[in-house]
Amino acid sequence: MKTLALILAAxxxxxxxxxxxxxxxxxxxxxAEAAAAFHDPLWQGAAWYRxxxxxxxxxxxxxxxxxxAHYNEGNACLMKGKYEAAxxxxxxxxxxxxxxxxxxxxxxxxxxxxxxxxxxxGDLGDQRLGADKIVFDKxxxxxxxxxxxxxxxxxxxxxxxxxxxxRVSTRxxxxxxxxxxxxxxxxxxxxxx
Length: 193
Known about the structure:
Number of helices: 10
CATH architecture of the domain at 42-127 and 145-171: Alpha Horseshoe
CATH class of the domain at 42-127 and 145-171: Mainly Alpha
Number of strands: 2
Low-confidence stretches: 140-146
Mean pLDDT: 75
Helix content: 55-70%
C-alpha cells in the first residue's frame, strides 16, 4: 500500500505543478501539506491560515504587495492578537484599494479589539497580546471573548474567527491573477539582469 502511495505521489509530481498539488491538498483539508506545496504566497498563506498557523500565514501574505495580501496579513495578525500590525496591514490594503468594505470593517474591529485589550491590561510595555496556541473547539458554545462592533452588535470569538476564515481570498480567479502577476514580475526581473 505504501508503495502505491509513493508511485501515485511521483506520478502527480510529474503532471501537476507545485501550486496544483497544493490546491489538491487544500481542497482535501490537508492545509499543512498544501502550504508546503504552494509556491504562490497568497495560496500558501491561505493554507497556513486555514490550518490555524497564523504567524506563518502572516509571513506568507507579507511577501506580496497587493491589497488582498495586506488584508489577509491583517486577518492573520488579528488572530494572533497583534492589533497594531493588523491595523497597519488593513491600512495598507485600504491605501491600495480605497473603500473596500471588508477591510474597513476589519480595521474598525482591530482598533476596537486593541482598545479593549489596552483597557483591560493597562500598560504592558513592549509585550504583545495573543494566545500561545490557538485551538478551534467545534463543540464549544460561545466560550470565547466577545467583541462589540459598529451598531452595538456583539460578536463572540467563534463568530469572529468564522468571519475571518470566510474572508481569506482563495478564489481560483484571484489565485490565477496572482500567479500570472508573479510570473510576469519574475520574467521582468530576469530580463533586467
